[in-house]
Amino acid sequence: MISVSESKLPIINMEDLKPGTESWNMTSHKVRQALEEYGCFMTIYGGFSQEAMKEVYDALKTLFDLPVETKIKNTSNKPFHGYLGPFRSRPLYESLGIECATSYDNVQSFTNLMWPSGNENFSKTMHSYANMISELEHMVRKMVFESDGVEKYYESYNESMAPLLRVMKYRPAKADESNMGSVTHTDKHFLTILNQNPVDGLEVQIKDDEEMVKVEYLPSSFVVMATDIFMAWSNGKLRSPRHRVVMNGQEDRYSIALFTFKNGAVEIPEEFVDDEHPPRFKPFDHFKFLEYYAKNPIYTDERTIKMFCGV
């Protein structure tokens, strides 16, 4: 039985699990069930202590306190991978991306860009966090592949995944501004693992045509969310939930997410296709889809992937 919090998101404990054990298999079923029914869940995962998480958010505050002239140096030739600053439709939001942050050299390169004189504490903190959260991402993806009977594809997908650590800040709204931190959207990555500080704001639509529910802060918890890409890969079995950030208080909200991207083609496993379940999406390139979305921002939700490669 999956427990449900006051915010109606399932809560799944993923601590101390070993592949092949009964507890692993039972949890795998719960993970797949949650992503199919809700598109997301909260997980308790003790890979980082509360003290370590405090260091992460202290480091984020230091980063976002840097001048804009410094932060805009965070660039990338991939859409949505570099610095994203406030603009008319989301004046409260800004974020930066660290590509392949599981590599210390990559984190160090980002750090040196922000602090030419160096900031070893930032590098160590972000690198440790990236590796911890990457382990959780691997676990979730492995559980879904195994539970769906397509584990034979896991290693090839694992080798082709490119992680992006994205750090985000939402400031409180001024009197004449909308309090919408980010508009309602679905994620365009393969899988999202999100942690947030105690300032609430994330809201998720866990059922189609229902109102958004607030995701309440829980210590040592992470929000795991399926995406448009994961939905397409599963031939629509997994749900890509719409969500947004609404700022109602007077404190800054910080969050940190691991987004994964698939190099090469995303294809529906043949096991998901039969006469009753014909293919709903054509094979597609993940990064070409991102380029399409960047140039055609007509919709922010799952309709974009259907326009791009829907059958």
Uncertain segments are: 1-6
Which strand order does the major sheet show?
Answer: 1-2-3-10-7-12-5-4
What quaternary form is this? single chain
When the domains are counted, the total is 1
Tally of helical segments: 9
Mean pLDDT: 93
**Approximate shape:** globular
Number of strands: 14
DSSP helix fraction: 25-40%
- The sequence of SSEs as H and E is EEHEHHEHHHEEEEEEHEEEEHH
What class would the helix/strand composition place it in?
alpha+beta
- What does the largest sheet look like? 8 strands, mixed
CATH topology, anyone?
Answer: Jelly Rolls
Strand content: 15-25%
Estimated radius of gyration: 19 Å
Give the name of the CATH superfamily: B-lactam Antibiotic, Isopenicillin N Synthase, Chain
Question: CATH class, anyone?
Answer: Mainly Beta
Overview of the structural elements:
By secondary structure, the protein is α+β, with helices and mostly antiparallel strands. It has one domain: Jelly Rolls (Sandwich), CATH 2.60.120.330. 33% of the residues lie in helices and 22% in strands. The chain has helices at residues 22-37, 50-64, 68-71, 104-114, 120-147, 154-159, 228-233, 286-295, 303-309; strands spanning 3-4, 10-13, 40-44, 93-99, 161-170, 180-185, 191-196, 202-204, 213-214, 221-226, 243-246, 253-262, 265-266, 284-285. The chain has an eight-stranded mixed sheet. Strands 6-11-8-9 form a four-stranded antiparallel sheet, with no helix packed on it. Strands 13-14 form a two-stranded antiparallel sheet. Strand 1 (3-4) and strand 2 form a beta hairpin. Helix 1 (22-37) crosses helix 5 (120-147) and helix 4 packs across helix 5 (120-147). The longest helix has 28 residues, at 120-147. The two termini are 35 Å apart. Mean pLDDT is 93; it is low at 1-6.
